Protein backbone atom coordinates (compact mmCIF):
# COMPACT_ATOMS: atom_id res chain seq x y z
CA UNK A 1 0.00 0.00 0.00
CA UNK A 2 2.78 2.40 0.99
CA UNK A 3 4.63 1.60 -2.21
CA UNK A 4 1.50 2.26 -4.28
CA UNK A 5 1.00 5.63 -2.61
CA UNK A 6 4.64 6.47 -3.13
CA UNK A 7 4.45 5.65 -6.85
CA UNK A 8 1.24 7.63 -7.22
CA UNK A 9 2.74 10.68 -5.51
CA UNK A 10 5.95 10.50 -7.54
CA UNK A 11 3.94 10.30 -10.77
CA UNK A 12 1.92 13.34 -9.67
CA UNK A 13 5.07 15.29 -8.81
CA UNK A 14 6.66 14.34 -12.10
CA UNK A 15 3.59 15.43 -14.03
CA UNK A 16 3.15 18.74 -12.27
CA UNK A 17 6.83 19.70 -12.11
CA UNK A 18 7.30 22.52 -14.58
CA UNK A 19 10.58 22.28 -16.35
CA UNK A 20 10.51 25.92 -17.38
CA UNK A 21 8.61 28.98 -16.27
CA UNK A 22 6.65 30.52 -19.12
CA UNK A 23 5.56 34.08 -19.75
CA UNK A 24 3.62 34.91 -22.90
CA UNK A 25 2.56 38.13 -24.56
CA UNK A 26 0.14 38.80 -27.40
CA UNK A 27 1.41 41.36 -29.90
CA UNK A 28 4.29 42.74 -27.79
CA UNK A 29 4.96 46.40 -28.53
CA UNK A 30 1.73 46.94 -30.43
CA UNK A 31 -0.26 49.89 -29.05
CA UNK A 32 -3.69 48.83 -30.24
CA UNK A 33 -4.34 45.77 -28.06
CA UNK A 34 -7.82 45.04 -29.49
CA UNK A 35 -6.65 44.16 -32.94
CA UNK A 36 -7.28 40.78 -34.54
CA UNK A 37 -3.66 40.26 -35.66
CA UNK A 38 -1.72 37.53 -33.91
CA UNK A 39 1.93 37.52 -32.94
CA UNK A 40 2.70 35.69 -29.72
CA UNK A 41 5.95 35.69 -27.84
CA UNK A 42 6.45 32.90 -25.30
CA UNK A 43 9.54 32.95 -23.13
CA UNK A 44 10.31 29.70 -21.29
CA UNK A 45 12.89 30.33 -18.56
CA UNK A 46 14.97 27.41 -17.34
CA UNK A 47 17.72 27.37 -14.75
CA UNK A 48 20.45 28.32 -17.23
CA UNK A 49 18.80 29.62 -20.41
CA UNK A 50 15.56 30.77 -22.01
CA UNK A 51 13.79 29.31 -25.04
CA UNK A 52 11.86 32.00 -26.93
CA UNK A 53 9.08 31.09 -29.31
CA UNK A 54 7.48 33.55 -31.66
CA UNK A 55 4.24 32.42 -33.30
CA UNK A 56 3.22 34.73 -36.06
CA UNK A 57 0.21 35.02 -38.37
CA UNK A 58 0.40 38.76 -39.07
CA UNK A 59 1.60 38.37 -42.66
CA UNK A 60 -0.53 35.40 -43.62
CA UNK A 61 2.23 32.82 -43.58
CA UNK A 62 2.12 30.76 -40.35
CA UNK A 63 5.53 31.11 -38.71
CA UNK A 64 7.24 29.65 -35.65
CA UNK A 65 10.61 31.11 -34.68
CA UNK A 66 12.76 29.67 -31.88
CA UNK A 67 15.68 31.40 -30.19
CA UNK A 68 17.84 30.26 -27.31
CA UNK A 69 19.27 33.02 -25.12
CA UNK A 70 20.62 33.73 -21.67
CA UNK A 71 17.98 34.11 -19.00
CA UNK A 72 15.95 37.32 -18.90
CA UNK A 73 16.64 38.40 -22.46
CA UNK A 74 13.66 40.44 -23.59
CA UNK A 75 12.16 40.67 -27.04
CA UNK A 76 11.55 43.92 -28.85
CA UNK A 77 9.09 44.18 -31.73
CA UNK A 78 8.53 47.33 -33.75
CA UNK A 79 5.40 47.70 -35.86
CA UNK A 80 4.26 49.58 -38.90
CA UNK A 81 0.51 49.65 -38.57
CA UNK A 82 -0.27 45.93 -38.04
CA UNK A 83 2.90 44.42 -39.49
CA UNK A 84 6.08 43.75 -37.56
CA UNK A 85 9.02 45.61 -39.11
CA UNK A 86 11.70 44.64 -36.61
CA UNK A 87 12.11 41.76 -34.17
CA UNK A 88 15.16 41.65 -31.96
CA UNK A 89 16.30 40.01 -28.77
CA UNK A 90 18.13 42.12 -26.22
CA UNK A 91 20.79 39.41 -25.96
CA UNK A 92 22.47 37.84 -28.97
CA UNK A 93 20.85 34.36 -29.21
CA UNK A 94 23.06 31.24 -28.97
CA UNK A 95 20.97 29.54 -31.59
CA UNK A 96 17.87 30.21 -33.69
CA UNK A 97 15.70 28.32 -36.13
CA UNK A 98 12.33 28.78 -37.79
CA UNK A 99 9.63 26.79 -39.55
CA UNK A 100 7.14 28.39 -41.89
CA UNK A 101 4.22 27.01 -43.89
CA UNK A 102 4.33 29.47 -46.78
CA UNK A 103 2.14 27.61 -49.27
CA UNK A 104 -0.53 25.06 -49.64
CA UNK A 105 -0.35 22.84 -52.71
CA UNK A 106 -3.21 21.08 -54.37
CA UNK A 107 -2.09 18.20 -56.60
CA UNK A 108 -3.84 15.76 -58.89
CA UNK A 109 -2.67 12.38 -57.66
CA UNK A 110 -3.60 10.35 -60.76
CA UNK A 111 -1.31 7.45 -59.80
CA UNK A 112 -2.95 7.34 -56.40
CA UNK A 113 0.12 6.87 -54.21
CA UNK A 114 -0.70 9.82 -51.98
CA UNK A 115 2.65 11.51 -52.26
CA UNK A 116 3.21 14.79 -54.09
CA UNK A 117 6.01 14.87 -56.65
CA UNK A 118 7.19 17.30 -59.29
CA UNK A 119 5.35 15.33 -62.02
CA UNK A 120 1.90 15.70 -60.48
CA UNK A 121 -0.31 18.42 -61.89
CA UNK A 122 -0.42 21.01 -59.12
CA UNK A 123 -1.57 24.42 -57.92
CA UNK A 124 -0.03 26.67 -55.33
CA UNK A 125 -1.93 28.73 -52.80
CA UNK A 126 0.38 31.27 -51.22
CA UNK A 127 -0.68 31.78 -47.63
CA UNK A 128 0.51 35.40 -47.59
CA UNK A 129 -2.97 36.31 -48.90
CA UNK A 130 -4.72 34.61 -46.02
CA UNK A 131 -6.37 36.49 -43.13
CA UNK A 132 -6.27 34.59 -39.85
CA UNK A 133 -9.02 34.96 -37.31
CA UNK A 134 -8.11 34.11 -33.71
CA UNK A 135 -10.69 31.68 -32.27
CA UNK A 136 -9.03 30.72 -28.98
CA UNK A 137 -6.27 32.12 -26.79
CA UNK A 138 -4.87 30.92 -23.47
CA UNK A 139 -1.80 32.68 -22.13
CA UNK A 140 -0.96 31.93 -18.51
CA UNK A 141 1.88 30.42 -16.50
CA UNK A 142 0.67 26.84 -17.13
CA UNK A 143 0.06 26.94 -20.87
CA UNK A 144 0.30 29.03 -24.01
CA UNK A 145 -2.28 28.12 -26.64
CA UNK A 146 -3.62 29.83 -29.72
CA UNK A 147 -6.10 28.66 -32.34
CA UNK A 148 -6.55 30.50 -35.62
CA UNK A 149 -8.71 29.95 -38.65
CA UNK A 150 -8.65 31.19 -42.25
CA UNK A 151 -11.77 30.90 -44.37
CA UNK A 152 -10.60 31.83 -47.85
CA UNK A 153 -7.50 31.10 -49.82
CA UNK A 154 -6.28 32.48 -53.11
CA UNK A 155 -5.32 30.67 -56.26
CA UNK A 156 -3.89 33.19 -58.70
CA UNK A 157 -6.60 35.85 -58.89
CA UNK A 158 -9.45 33.69 -57.71
CA UNK A 159 -10.63 33.25 -54.15
CA UNK A 160 -11.66 29.78 -53.04
CA UNK A 161 -13.59 28.55 -50.04
CA UNK A 162 -12.39 26.24 -47.32
CA UNK A 163 -11.16 26.39 -43.76
CA UNK A 164 -7.58 26.13 -42.62
CA UNK A 165 -7.39 25.67 -38.89
CA UNK A 166 -4.19 25.80 -36.81
CA UNK A 167 -3.47 25.29 -33.16
CA UNK A 168 -0.20 25.87 -31.33
CA UNK A 169 0.13 24.69 -27.77
CA UNK A 170 3.01 24.92 -25.32
CA UNK A 171 2.64 22.92 -22.11
CA UNK A 172 5.81 23.42 -20.07
CA UNK A 173 6.52 19.88 -18.86
CA UNK A 174 7.11 16.48 -20.41
CA UNK A 175 4.00 14.48 -21.21
CA UNK A 176 1.86 12.96 -23.95
CA UNK A 177 -0.64 15.05 -25.91
CA UNK A 178 -4.28 14.26 -25.10
CA UNK A 179 -5.21 13.78 -28.76
CA UNK A 180 -3.97 11.09 -31.13
CA UNK A 181 -1.22 10.46 -32.14
CA UNK A 182 -0.26 11.43 -28.56
CA UNK A 183 2.98 13.16 -29.44
CA UNK A 184 5.34 14.08 -26.62
CA UNK A 185 5.36 17.70 -25.48
CA UNK A 186 8.15 19.21 -23.38
CA UNK A 187 8.98 22.61 -21.95
CA UNK A 188 11.21 23.14 -24.97
CA UNK A 189 8.65 22.35 -27.65
CA UNK A 190 5.14 23.07 -28.87
CA UNK A 191 2.39 20.91 -30.29
CA UNK A 192 1.07 22.04 -33.65
CA UNK A 193 -2.13 20.85 -35.35
CA UNK A 194 -3.15 21.84 -38.87
CA UNK A 195 -6.48 20.94 -40.48
CA UNK A 196 -7.87 21.50 -43.96
CA UNK A 197 -11.66 21.42 -43.81
CA UNK A 198 -14.12 21.51 -46.75
CA UNK A 199 -11.54 22.89 -49.15
CA UNK A 200 -12.91 23.46 -52.66
CA UNK A 201 -10.94 21.39 -55.10
CA UNK A 202 -10.04 22.31 -58.68
CA UNK A 203 -12.76 21.02 -61.05
CA UNK A 204 -10.24 19.48 -63.48
CA UNK A 205 -8.46 17.52 -60.74
CA UNK A 206 -10.06 14.08 -60.42
CA UNK A 207 -7.78 12.96 -57.59
CA UNK A 208 -7.21 16.12 -55.62
CA UNK A 209 -5.07 16.07 -52.49
CA UNK A 210 -3.42 18.82 -50.44
CA UNK A 211 0.15 19.21 -49.24
CA UNK A 212 1.88 21.68 -46.95
CA UNK A 213 4.98 23.43 -48.21
CA UNK A 214 7.43 24.16 -45.41
CA UNK A 215 10.42 26.44 -45.24
CA UNK A 216 12.93 25.57 -42.54
CA UNK A 217 15.64 28.04 -41.61
CA UNK A 218 18.39 27.64 -39.07
CA UNK A 219 21.56 29.35 -38.06
CA UNK A 220 23.60 26.22 -38.82
CA UNK A 221 24.47 24.30 -41.93
CA UNK A 222 23.13 20.87 -41.07
CA UNK A 223 19.75 19.31 -41.51
CA UNK A 224 18.84 15.69 -41.09
CA UNK A 225 15.76 13.63 -41.71
CA UNK A 226 15.59 10.55 -39.54
CA UNK A 227 13.11 7.74 -39.43
CA UNK A 228 13.18 6.16 -36.02
CA UNK A 229 11.47 2.90 -35.12
CA UNK A 230 9.70 3.06 -31.83
CA UNK A 231 9.69 0.03 -29.57
CA UNK A 232 6.02 0.17 -28.82
CA UNK A 233 2.84 1.52 -30.32
CA UNK A 234 1.22 1.97 -26.94
CA UNK A 235 0.35 5.62 -27.56
CA UNK A 236 -0.33 5.39 -31.30
CA UNK A 237 -1.87 2.02 -32.11
CA UNK A 238 -0.33 0.40 -35.16
CA UNK A 239 2.24 3.12 -35.83
CA UNK A 240 5.77 2.16 -34.87
CA UNK A 241 7.55 4.92 -36.73
CA UNK A 242 8.60 8.39 -35.69
CA UNK A 243 9.98 10.95 -38.10
CA UNK A 244 12.45 13.49 -36.82
CA UNK A 245 13.88 16.45 -38.67
CA UNK A 246 16.91 17.74 -36.85
CA UNK A 247 18.82 20.95 -37.28
CA UNK A 248 21.77 20.37 -34.98
CA UNK A 249 23.70 23.28 -33.50
CA UNK A 250 27.08 22.15 -34.76
CA UNK A 251 28.70 19.58 -37.02
CA UNK A 252 28.24 17.10 -34.18
CA UNK A 253 24.98 15.59 -35.37
CA UNK A 254 24.06 14.43 -31.88
CA UNK A 255 24.09 17.94 -30.58
CA UNK A 256 20.99 19.86 -29.46
CA UNK A 257 19.27 22.01 -32.00
CA UNK A 258 15.92 22.60 -33.61
CA UNK A 259 13.70 19.64 -34.35
CA UNK A 260 10.34 18.65 -35.74
CA UNK A 261 8.91 15.34 -34.60
CA UNK A 262 5.82 13.48 -35.84
CA UNK A 263 4.29 10.14 -36.68
CA UNK A 264 3.85 9.41 -40.42
CA UNK A 265 0.11 9.66 -40.01
CA UNK A 266 -2.67 12.14 -40.74
CA UNK A 267 -6.41 12.01 -40.07
CA UNK A 268 -9.43 12.28 -42.33
CA UNK A 269 -11.98 13.06 -39.65
CA UNK A 270 -12.27 15.30 -36.62
CA UNK A 271 -12.73 12.13 -34.58
CA UNK A 272 -9.22 10.78 -34.77
CA UNK A 273 -8.87 7.02 -34.72
CA UNK A 274 -7.32 4.05 -36.44
CA UNK A 275 -10.06 3.94 -39.11
CA UNK A 276 -9.81 7.65 -39.90
CA UNK A 277 -6.06 7.69 -40.28
CA UNK A 278 -4.02 8.03 -43.44
CA UNK A 279 -0.34 8.17 -44.35
CA UNK A 280 1.71 11.36 -44.10
CA UNK A 281 4.63 11.61 -46.51
CA UNK A 282 7.68 13.85 -46.17
CA UNK A 283 9.57 14.87 -49.27
CA UNK A 284 13.28 15.40 -49.56
CA UNK A 285 14.77 18.80 -48.75
CA UNK A 286 15.78 21.31 -51.35
CA UNK A 287 17.66 24.57 -50.87
CA UNK A 288 15.53 27.69 -51.15
CA UNK A 289 15.33 31.26 -49.84
CA UNK A 290 13.22 32.97 -47.19
CA UNK A 291 9.86 34.27 -48.43
CA UNK A 292 9.85 38.01 -49.22
CA UNK A 293 7.82 40.34 -46.98
CA UNK A 294 7.52 37.75 -44.24
CA UNK A 295 8.04 37.88 -40.51
CA UNK A 296 10.75 35.23 -40.74
CA UNK A 297 12.61 37.50 -43.16
CA UNK A 298 12.18 40.42 -40.75
CA UNK A 299 13.62 38.29 -37.95
CA UNK A 300 16.54 36.91 -39.93
CA UNK A 301 17.46 40.33 -41.30
CA UNK A 302 19.52 40.92 -38.21
CA UNK A 303 21.22 37.49 -38.38
CA UNK A 304 22.71 35.62 -41.28
CA UNK A 305 20.48 32.98 -42.82
CA UNK A 306 22.97 30.30 -43.65
CA UNK A 307 20.60 27.61 -44.51
CA UNK A 308 17.07 27.60 -45.80
CA UNK A 309 15.37 24.40 -46.92
CA UNK A 310 12.00 23.59 -48.35
CA UNK A 311 10.03 20.38 -48.02
CA UNK A 312 6.53 19.01 -48.58
CA UNK A 313 4.29 17.05 -46.30
CA UNK A 314 1.51 15.31 -48.22
CA UNK A 315 -1.24 12.88 -47.23
CA UNK A 316 -3.05 9.84 -48.52
CA UNK A 317 -2.75 6.24 -49.54
CA UNK A 318 -3.76 4.13 -52.53
CA UNK A 319 -7.50 3.56 -52.88
CA UNK A 320 -8.65 5.99 -50.22
CA UNK A 321 -10.79 8.13 -52.54
CA UNK A 322 -8.54 11.21 -52.12
CA UNK A 323 -9.46 14.46 -50.35
CA UNK A 324 -13.05 14.48 -51.69
CA UNK A 325 -13.81 11.27 -49.77
CA UNK A 326 -13.70 13.10 -46.44
CA UNK A 327 -13.16 16.78 -47.25
CA UNK A 328 -10.93 16.75 -44.18
CA UNK A 329 -7.19 16.37 -43.60
CA UNK A 330 -5.46 17.03 -40.31
CA UNK A 331 -1.97 16.44 -39.06
CA UNK A 332 0.03 17.06 -35.89
CA UNK A 333 3.69 17.63 -35.22
CA UNK A 334 5.84 19.02 -32.49
CA UNK A 335 8.51 21.61 -32.99
CA UNK A 336 11.13 22.43 -30.41
CA UNK A 337 14.63 22.89 -29.21
CA UNK A 338 16.92 20.26 -27.69
CA UNK A 339 17.13 16.54 -28.31
CA UNK A 340 13.83 15.18 -29.66
CA UNK A 341 12.08 13.41 -26.79
CA UNK A 342 11.85 9.61 -26.80
CA UNK A 343 8.94 7.56 -25.51
CA UNK A 344 9.37 5.96 -22.16
CA UNK A 345 7.46 2.86 -21.19
CA UNK A 346 4.40 3.52 -19.10
CA UNK A 347 3.98 2.03 -15.65
CA UNK A 348 1.55 -0.52 -17.10
CA UNK A 349 4.02 -1.73 -19.74
CA UNK A 350 6.80 -1.89 -17.14
CA UNK A 351 4.53 -4.04 -14.94
CA UNK A 352 3.72 -6.37 -17.82
CA UNK A 353 7.39 -6.67 -18.74
CA UNK A 354 8.40 -7.21 -15.10
CA UNK A 355 5.81 -9.94 -14.69
CA UNK A 356 6.79 -11.48 -18.01
CA UNK A 357 10.47 -11.55 -17.09
CA UNK A 358 9.93 -11.96 -13.36
CA UNK A 359 7.87 -15.16 -13.34
CA UNK A 360 10.46 -17.36 -15.11
CA UNK A 361 13.23 -15.88 -12.95
CA UNK A 362 11.29 -16.58 -9.76
CA UNK A 363 10.53 -20.11 -10.99
CA UNK A 364 14.18 -20.74 -11.86
CA UNK A 365 15.35 -19.35 -8.52
CA UNK A 366 12.85 -21.37 -6.54
CA UNK A 367 13.99 -24.47 -8.43
CA UNK A 368 17.59 -23.78 -7.47
CA UNK A 369 16.64 -23.07 -3.85
CA UNK A 370 14.62 -26.30 -3.76
CA UNK A 371 17.56 -28.35 -5.06
CA UNK A 372 20.00 -26.73 -2.60
CA UNK A 373 17.66 -27.19 0.35
CA UNK A 374 17.09 -30.85 -0.61
CA UNK A 375 20.83 -31.50 -0.94
CA UNK A 376 21.45 -29.79 2.40
CA UNK A 377 18.74 -31.82 4.12
CA UNK A 378 20.02 -35.07 2.60
CA UNK A 379 23.55 -34.28 3.73
CA UNK A 380 22.28 -33.58 7.26
CA UNK A 381 20.43 -36.88 7.29
CA UNK A 382 23.53 -38.66 6.02
CA UNK A 383 25.81 -37.00 8.59
CA UNK A 384 23.40 -37.91 11.37
CA UNK A 385 23.47 -41.49 10.16
CA UNK A 386 27.26 -41.28 10.06
CA UNK A 387 27.35 -39.99 13.62
CA UNK A 388 25.17 -42.80 14.85
CA UNK A 389 27.52 -45.36 13.35
C1 LIG B 1 15.36 37.83 -14.08
O1 LIG B 1 14.42 38.82 -13.70
C2 LIG B 1 13.75 38.57 -12.49
C3 LIG B 1 12.73 39.65 -12.25
O2 LIG B 1 12.50 40.40 -13.38
C4 LIG B 1 14.76 38.49 -11.36
O3 LIG B 1 14.09 38.17 -10.16
C5 LIG B 1 15.81 37.45 -11.66
O4 LIG B 1 16.81 37.44 -10.68
C6 LIG B 1 16.45 37.70 -13.01
N1 LIG B 1 17.34 36.61 -13.33
C7 LIG B 1 18.56 36.79 -13.88
C8 LIG B 1 19.33 35.55 -14.15
O5 LIG B 1 19.00 37.89 -14.15
C1 LIG C 1 -17.83 21.12 -43.64
O1 LIG C 1 -18.92 20.61 -44.38
C2 LIG C 1 -19.78 19.77 -43.62
C3 LIG C 1 -20.81 19.16 -44.54
O2 LIG C 1 -21.23 20.09 -45.48
C4 LIG C 1 -20.42 20.62 -42.50
O3 LIG C 1 -21.24 19.82 -41.69
C5 LIG C 1 -19.31 21.21 -41.63
O4 LIG C 1 -19.85 22.07 -40.66
C6 LIG C 1 -18.31 21.98 -42.48
N1 LIG C 1 -17.22 22.39 -41.63
C7 LIG C 1 -16.61 23.57 -41.70
C8 LIG C 1 -15.56 23.86 -40.70
O5 LIG C 1 -16.89 24.37 -42.54
C1 LIG D 1 15.08 22.35 -56.07
O1 LIG D 1 15.12 23.75 -56.27
C2 LIG D 1 15.51 24.15 -57.58
C3 LIG D 1 15.66 25.65 -57.59
O2 LIG D 1 14.55 26.28 -57.03
C4 LIG D 1 14.47 23.64 -58.58
O3 LIG D 1 14.87 23.99 -59.89
C5 LIG D 1 14.36 22.13 -58.46
O4 LIG D 1 13.33 21.66 -59.30
C6 LIG D 1 14.05 21.74 -57.02
N1 LIG D 1 14.07 20.28 -56.91
C7 LIG D 1 13.07 19.60 -56.35
C8 LIG D 1 13.28 18.13 -56.27
O5 LIG D 1 12.07 20.14 -55.93
C1 LIG E 1 -16.83 16.87 -50.34
O1 LIG E 1 -17.15 18.06 -51.05
C2 LIG E 1 -17.60 17.85 -52.38
C3 LIG E 1 -17.89 19.19 -52.99
O2 LIG E 1 -16.86 20.08 -52.73
C4 LIG E 1 -18.86 16.99 -52.37
O3 LIG E 1 -19.25 16.70 -53.69
C5 LIG E 1 -18.59 15.70 -51.63
O4 LIG E 1 -19.78 14.95 -51.51
C6 LIG E 1 -18.06 16.00 -50.23
N1 LIG E 1 -17.72 14.74 -49.56
C7 LIG E 1 -18.17 14.45 -48.34
C8 LIG E 1 -17.76 13.13 -47.78
O5 LIG E 1 -18.86 15.23 -47.69
C1 LIG F 1 15.41 21.59 -22.78
O1 LIG F 1 16.61 22.25 -23.18
C2 LIG F 1 17.63 22.25 -22.20
C3 LIG F 1 18.80 23.00 -22.76
O2 LIG F 1 18.49 24.33 -22.95
C4 LIG F 1 18.03 20.83 -21.86
O3 LIG F 1 19.00 20.85 -20.82
C5 LIG F 1 16.79 20.07 -21.40
O4 LIG F 1 17.14 18.72 -21.17
C6 LIG F 1 15.71 20.14 -22.44
N1 LIG F 1 14.52 19.50 -21.92
C7 LIG F 1 13.87 18.56 -22.58
C8 LIG F 1 12.70 17.96 -21.88
O5 LIG F 1 14.22 18.19 -23.68
Give the fraction of residues assigned to helices. 10-25%
Strand element count: 23
Shape: globular
Mean pLDDT: 86
Q: What sequence of helices (H) and strands (E) makes up the elements?
A: HEEEEEEEEEEEEEEEEEEEEEHEEH
Termini separation comes to: 55 Å
Largest sheet: 11 strands, antiparallel
The helix/strand class is: alpha+beta
**Uncertain segments:** 5-16
Strand content: 35-45%
* Count of helix runs: 3
Ligand identities? 2-acetamido-2-deoxy-beta-D-glucopyranose
Kindly provide the radius of gyration, computed on alpha-carbon positions and rounded to a whole number of angstroms. Answer: 27 Å
Task: Tell me what you see in this structure.
With 389 residues, the chain is of the alpha+beta class. It contains 3 helices and 23 strands. A hairpin with a 2-residue loop joins strand 10 and strand 11. The longest helix has 42 residues. The radius of gyration is 27 Å and the shape is globular. About 3% of the residues have low confidence. One 2-acetamido-2-deoxy-beta-D-glucopyranose (NAG) binds next to loops.
Task: Give a quick summary of the entry.
By secondary structure, this protein is of the alpha+beta class. Helix content is 16%, strand content 43%. It has helices at 2-16, 295-300, 347-388; strands spanning 21-26, 39-45, 50-56, 63-69, 75-80, 83-89, 95-108, 121-126, 133-139, 144-155, 158-170, 175-176, 184-185, 189-197, 208-218, 224-229, 241-248, 257-262, 265-267, 277-282, 286-287, 307-315, 328-338.
